[in-house]
Prior knowledge:
22% of the residues lie in helices and 36% in strands. By secondary structure, the protein is α+β, with helices and mostly antiparallel strands.
Amino acid sequence: MLLHRIHLNLRSREARRDLADPYQLHCTLCRAFSSPGSRCPENEFLWRLEPEHATSGQPRILVQSRSIPDWNAVGVKGYLAKADPPIDLVKRLRLAEVKDGQRYRFRLRANPCVTRNGKRMGLMHLEDQEAWIARKGKQHGFFLPRVLSSDLLEPRQERINVRVSGERMLRGMQHSGNEIRIFSVLYDGILTVTEPASFLGAMKTGIGHGKAMGLGLLSVAPTF
């Protein structure tokens, strides 16, 4: 798994368009991983627009991939302000040595949702959003520690120790003209690995729906 940090150039009209339409941004990134005229390889990469980009002056995107991209193949002059050297996550995080009980800081922008009557519905309440990430943890080989809430206005109760922020309704337009709308939130916290194989699988393939809209990338870093 390779991690790339790229910075978009706000002077580029195409970059500004893509920032307003995550589906088109995904299509642009696809060109770096495929030959002209071919389809984007399935499960080749995950990406996320980092929330701190608003203060940096250059929107920063994390791209995690199986192979090395050719950013020149994006085909838009001046689209990137810069691209940092790729990071080998397997070596950097020693992922081949991950064990049960290992702890990481994590970040995930995802679509917490439930399916009702055949339709996916975004979960808008904090308790439901927390319960969603807890369920995904059980499914993907990790759990989130629990702490007593510190809300003075409510009885103290145990809640998972995760910060949920950055609610956004993402909108995109497919080439067919169909509009995509998907609800998303940003999760930040600490996780503990319970099943290393499932955990690594989640890192490789992502969590939840909306990967073409920049969702699902589980980023982790060591705790010290």
